[in-house]
């Protein structure tokens, strides 16, 4: 019997603006997104129990959840409730310990990545014969059951890793590797705001955008259509033999413009950050992750030393972007197994993959 299973999965930075992979927008048209899996990996350790549950989560700022006698369905935080629902649905009594290397809520897909890693760890713990390519669907299904309105981009980035384009459509998700294009991020940095800053939650932002889309608000409808077109252009550019960083920079500025048009809350959140001042000064090309607000991390494609120093003086932490070529990886004890998606494992020899059933 497997007693302990550990799964790790990468956080991500998206380049194409988000929101286009969530309902109801996908019902009207397909969308492509590009994600860079970061070399900042979430780790979830699942230990078989005799019937009780516990959940403990720690991020780079300290404890997030510490529930030694957790009762599924009574979690105090959104992610705590999601993990409880996952434990109940899979029917596996276990203790979960999660470590997140960046701050929760900064827009790097931490919730989706924790859910992906926890799903992989629990499936390995119970020795279920489910392929890892099914893991993002299981993780996302639990989120939908709990009323979370996000899409699948975080779960897929965590599962497959690498620098990757995802095409979301009615019949599933196509996964296309862009490893050769990673050079466009050679000078990129991830700027994370100080602890006092907070952002509007991504689930709330998706609801706000979806409501305006359903109401036919011209700015939101046009901005979403623009993000889809830009997602196509960015995917096509990065699929070329030698994509130019200047071309990508121009497209990312256009993404930022469309994001600002999605909703007044998003516009205000973007424009109140010190990074927005740098963008207006032309010192940096970048985009916010996770939507908006002073708690959102930013992906800076090109920035000067002076710009990074200004952010540091305001309490921001700047990380060099390194891509994680390996997606979710699981190990189990006492029978030790290692399975990975990404650089090795299910996609070892395939550049592209088609994953059915995303919607």
Automatic annotation (TrEMBL):
Protein name (Swiss-Prot/TrEMBL): GHMP kinase N-terminal domain-containing protein
Stretches assigned to the GHMP kinase N-terminal domain: 92-162
Highest taxon of the lineage: Bacteria
Annotated Basic and acidic residues bias: 328-338
GO MF term (any one): kinase activity
Region ranges (Disordered): 328-359
Organism: Micromonospora orduensis
Keyword annotations from UniProtKB, A to Z: Kinase, Transferase
Any Pfam family the entry gives: GHMP_kinases_N
InterPro entries: GHMP_kinase_N_dom, HddA/FKP, Ribosomal_Su5_D2-typ_SF
């Amino acid at each position: 019997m497997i007693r302990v299973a550990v799964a790790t999965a990468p956080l991500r930075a998206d380049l194409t603006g988000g929101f286009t992979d969530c309902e109801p927008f996908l019902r009207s048209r397909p969308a492509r997104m590009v994600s860079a899996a970061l070399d900042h990996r979430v780790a979830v350790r699942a230990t078989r129990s005799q019937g009780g549950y516990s959940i403990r989560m720690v991020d780079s700022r300290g404890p997030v959840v510490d529930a030694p006698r957790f009762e599924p369905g009574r979690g105090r935080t959104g992610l705590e409730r999601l993990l409880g629902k996952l434990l109940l649905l899979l029917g596996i009594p276990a203790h979960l310990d999660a470590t997140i290397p960046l701050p929760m809520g900064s827009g790097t897909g931490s919730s989706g990545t924790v859910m992906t890693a926890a799903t992989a760890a629990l499936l390995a713990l119970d020795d279920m014969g489910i392929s890892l390519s099914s893991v993002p669907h299981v993780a996302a299904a639990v989120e939908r059951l709990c009323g979370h309105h996000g899409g699948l981009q975080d779960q897929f980035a965590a599962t497959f890793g690498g620098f990757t384009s995802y095409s979301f459509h009615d019949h599933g998700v196509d996964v296309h590797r862009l490893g050769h294009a990673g050079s466009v991020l050679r000078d990129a940095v991830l700027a994370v705001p100080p602890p006092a800053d907070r952002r509007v939650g991504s689930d709330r932002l998706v609801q706000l955008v979806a409501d305006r889309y359903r109401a036919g608000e011209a700015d939101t409808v046009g901005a979403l259509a623009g993000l889809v077109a830009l997602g196509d252009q960015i995917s096509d550019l990065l699929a070329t033999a030698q994509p130019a960083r200047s071309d990508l920079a121009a497209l990312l500025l256009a993404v930022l413009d469309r994001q600002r048009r999605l909703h007044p809350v998003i516009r205000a959140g973007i424009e109140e950050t010190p990074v927005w001042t740098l963008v207006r000064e032309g010192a940096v090309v970048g985009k916010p992750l996770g939507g908006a607000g002073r708690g959102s991390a930013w992906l800076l494609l090109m920035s000067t030393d002076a710009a990074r120093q200004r952010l540091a003086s305001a309490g921001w932490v700047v990380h060099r972007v390194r891509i994680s070529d390996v997606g979710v990886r699981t190990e189990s004890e006492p029978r030790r197994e290692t399975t990975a998606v990404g650089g090795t494992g299910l996609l070892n020899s395939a550049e592209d993959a088609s994953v059915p059933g995303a919607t």
